[in-house]
Automatic annotation (TrEMBL):
Entry similarity comment: Belongs to the ROK (NagC/XylR) family.
Pfam families: ROK (PF00480)
InterPro entries (alphabetical): ATPase_NBD, ROK, WH-like_DNA-bd_sf, WH_DNA-bd_sf
Source species taxonomy: Bacteria, Bacillati, Bacillota, Bacilli, Lactobacillales
Task of the protein: Transcriptional repressor of xylose-utilizing enzymes.
Top-level division of the source organism's lineage: Bacteria
UniProt protein name: ROK family protein
Keywords recorded for this protein, A-Z: Carbohydrate metabolism, Xylose metabolism
Length: 383
């Protein structure tokens, strides 16, 4: 078999950079042993990375007396540039700026109230314009945008909370800032975060996101599973069966009945008030309010059903819950786990490592992979 030298060089460069990102600071001879590449090849590639300022020297490795010349350590230069990551829900626009190892440089948010697309674009560009001059080598490298809705090949298919119409967000920001722009579903990005910001590598996982709506991000064989048109994991669209044989079109969706927004509306009706906040719900639950306790029991029952469906459909190693409600009431997760005790081989149900920033950091991971031209490569970022 004839192997193209350029293809082999590209493969070796990605492997060496992956080793430096995941294991650095690391010596060239350690990279050589780790990858099974000869030392000359590794030194040549590392030298190229140093010239490009992707990698920097970290001085000599400490060694025992009499062990000979000390090896030079090299590390990934996380300040090569930065990426900007947005999340657009129906209530808030968030922006997180990270350097290329995932460490945060800046965070800001702006409330939204039934905004138009032009208002959202104006806020996004204004937030970028207010950023300080970060101490990095090459400035902005990429932008990611998280959407609460269905995204297919960088285009919005449906967005229940914001009407984007035919506006092309990706093209707009690419043309304005001249960098790659990645757009993805927010639950998918939450799943990416759980994998890439952890040293524990899972073959498959599901991240259940419960906010204004409910969705699931799915990783199978360490890759995002989006389905045929980006709708995989849209568990908020699951129909809830009522008594009798109603027409399917008349059945309520899981989003309509058990999203965080729907739950708070139900709590408001129970309490005879116009609005009921998450903080009020948590406080009432802590005080064993019988109406709220019963409502949360119903929530756990329905979440257990959906979770069982996810287990049967995807057989994940772990299921993460990304939910401000569950974060504040962790006993809900135990309740769901107990309800599933009849099932064999139920995977661990755990809280997200970072409910607030998971989606934004997942976007940062995809953006950084794009900058480094390493799609599908396992990179471990700092959290």
């Amino acid at each position: 078999m004839i192997i193209n030298k350029d293809v082999m060089r590209d493969h070796n460069e990605r492997s060496v950079l992956q080793a430096i990102v995941n294991h650095g600071p690391i010596a060239r001879n350690e990279i050589s042993k780790l990858l099974g590449l000869n030392k000359v090849t590794v030194s040549d590639i590392v030298g190229t990375f140093i010239d490009r300022k992707l990698v920097s020297s970290q001085g000599e490795k400490a060694s025992s007396p009499g062990s000979g010349r000390r090896a030079e350590l090299v590390a990934f230069n996380a300040t090569y540039g930065y990426v900007i990551n947005f999340s657009i829900s129906g209530e808030v626009l968030e922006m997180l700026v990270t350097q290329l190892d995932g460490r945060a440089l800046s965070y800001s948010e702006s409330p939204l109230n039934q905004p138009t697309v032009s208002e959202i674009i104006a806020k996004m560009t204004d937030m970028i314009g207010q950023l300080p001059a970060f101490e990095v080598e090459n400035g902005l490298q990429a932008i990611s945008i998280a959407i609460f809705g269905v995204v297919y090949q960088n285009e919005i298919v449906t967005s229940p909370f914001v009407d984007f119409g035919d506006f092309d967000l990706v093209s707009y920001f690419q043309e304005r800032y001249h960098v790659p722009v990645i757009m993805e579903n927010e639950a998918n990005l939450a799943a990416v975060f759980e994998q890439d910001f952890s040293k524990q590598e899972l073959q498959s996982l599901v991240a259940v996101s419960i906010h204004e709506g409910i969705g699931a991000g799915i990783l199978l064989n360490k890759q995002l599973y989006r389905g045929n048109y980006g709708r995989a994991g849209e568990i908020g669209q699951i129909m809830i069966q009522g008594p009798g044989n109603q027409r399917l079109a008349k059945l309520p969706s899981f989003d309509r009945e058990w999203s965080e927004a729907a739950l708070l509306k139900k709590a408001a009706r129970l309490k005879g008030v116009e609005r009921y906040s998450l903080d009020q719900l948590v406080q009432a639950a802590g005080q064993d309010d019988p109406e709220i306790t019963s409502l949360l029991e119903d929530l756990c029952y329905h979440l257990a059903i959906v979770t069982s469906d996810l287990i049967v459909a995807y057989d994940p190693q772990m299921i993460f819950f990304n939910s401000p409600l569950v974060e504040q009431l962790p006993e809900l997760l135990k309740n769901i786990q107990m309800k599933l005790s009849f099932m064999p081989l139920v995977p661990p149900l755990v809280m997200s490592k970072d409910v607030k920033y998971a989606t934004l950091l997942g976007g940062a991971s995809l953006a950084i992979h794009q900058v480094l031209d390493m799609p599908g490569t396992r990179l471990i970022f700092h959290h």
